[in-house]
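Supplementary Text 2. Reproducibility record for the structural model of the 208-residue chain.

All settings were left at their defaults, and a single model was retained for analysis rather than an ensemble. We include the record here because the model underlies the residue-level annotations in Supplementary Table 4.
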Amino acid sequence: MSTLTLDSVRAALALSDFDAQTAQLRMAPTTRPMLRADDQANGPKLAAVLILLYPVESELKFALMRRTEYPGAHSGQISLPGGSAEPGETWVQTALRETCEEFGVCDAVDVLGALTPLYVPPSDFEIHPVVGALPERPVWQPDPREVAEILEVPLSHLLDDQYKQFGDWTLGSGRAARVPYYHLCGQTVWGATAIILSEFEHRLRAAV
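Retained model, structure tokens:
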């Protein structure tokens, strides 16, 4: 496998004929709807997340977080930094603001591009993933109210099938599902985060 560089990432994000939906489905639970029901009133809530890349000893890494425990659909889960958009914000502004608030990383990020928006049924959010990079490993100052742990993942692990597994789970809705997930830094990464990373993974596979 070729070494992953920021040029690889730029090429992956620039692919014009890439089948994003098929890539997303590779890490989606078998019973998961990918589209919002037509009969739902109003529009979904809007959010953005950031895949933040940075080098550590010449290897690109990206950051995930383990959320704190709270009464909510995503309590304790592994996710990308991000959150709800504020009025008038672009997706990039939302992703960078939330990363600053959650990780304490407020440095100027080189925005490389974006992935395909993803609808999340349990929370009725439409998530817009942004990809950016820093020239060196940031100094983490996580908000303890939201972030229990920061995970630093080698980007190459997304392309290594030993970090992918499957489980038969009963989801919060009570439905049984075959669930694919990444096993990264000893944690189970599934659901919306895994689906977003799956598109990123397969774009990289197509570009390198």
